[in-house]
Specification:
- By secondary structure, the chain is α/β, with parallel strands linked by helices.
- The protein folds into 2 domains: about 5-110, no CATH class; about 125-315, Leucine-rich repeat, LRR (right-handed beta-alpha superhelix), CATH 3.80.10.
- Helices cover about 20% and strands about 20% of the residues.
- The chain has helices at about 5-15, 20-35, 90-95, 100-105, 115-120, 135-145, 205-210, 230-235, 280-285; strands spanning about 45-55, 60-65, 70-75, 80-85, 150, 170-175, 195-200, 215-220, 240-245, 270, 295, 310-315.
- The strands form 2 sheets. An 8-stranded parallel sheet has the order 5-6-7-8-9-10-11-12, with no helix packed on it. A 4-stranded antiparallel sheet has the order 1-2-3-4, sandwiched between helices.
Length: about 325
Amino acid sequence: MSSLTEREYRYWLAKNGDRRNNNVIYANLSVLLSTNKDIEFDRSKVQYIYFTGIEDSSLNFITLFQYDAHYALLDYTDNVVSMCMDTNIDIVLQQLTPEKRTQCRITLRHQAKLSPAEIDALKGVVPTDFISSTEKSDLFKRYVADRPNIDLSGLYTLSPEDILGTFPHKEIIMYQNPLFTHFEWLVKFPQATLLSIWYADSITDKKLSEIPAQILTLELHGLPSITEMAIYEIPHTVKKLIVDSNLICCPSGQSCSDSVKINTSLEFLVLNNTSLTKDYIQTLVQHFTGLTHLFLPENVFRPDLGGDSKLIIGKC
């Protein structure tokens, strides 16, 4: 049996390698490589992260990412950073011992086998096809053509300007898309009502206020730049809000509800944050007067609702 082609193998690595910590690595590559003065690093050239294997008993890790035309293997062991780069993916991955390949959940190319689902996916456009592509607009149209929803996961180099025309999709997932720094592009998806945002460090409280009225369900996952004020910045057209982020505390002495209008539209709220204070939650309930369902972590304060309240409070 012949080995996989480079396109097949790149997709296989992206699907089968350990991806659980790719978001952390992507966000911190610049800091990690700043300690190695022999490496001139430009994060804008990072086009894809294939996998990240972390040792269970330490913070040591190995990650493979696309750096322009090169495959870059970064090894962080005992606070020492080393990197191997080459345009030949086989040369790069041969640097890994069998134990480290197991840690990353990968095999060398001649040992890799595609699953039936992977074979079927490769008949169309897959996220790794965007790497080094100069035809992203056409590629995007083909990528979303047969998909019921828009999933931008792994499209690190796609920008809103690459999305030409309008599309009928109703649900959109943003997952580490560093070039999506605004929400004006949502006009290209006039039927979209659900927006799920993951690990976007450029999204701030103020940016959230710019989300258009068409979005009725909003999910915020792991956004490092939003504060407790973010919930009050959500447009009043949103009816369902899920926040799975550690909200930065407001400055001392400042009330997060200062100068904001009462929100009667939000009906369903999930706050998966264990650091929320009693005052914050009580103020929140008083502000969102249309709430019918509120879900909080088990160990977080439950507000005093009064006898006539119809608000249902559950655990998340």
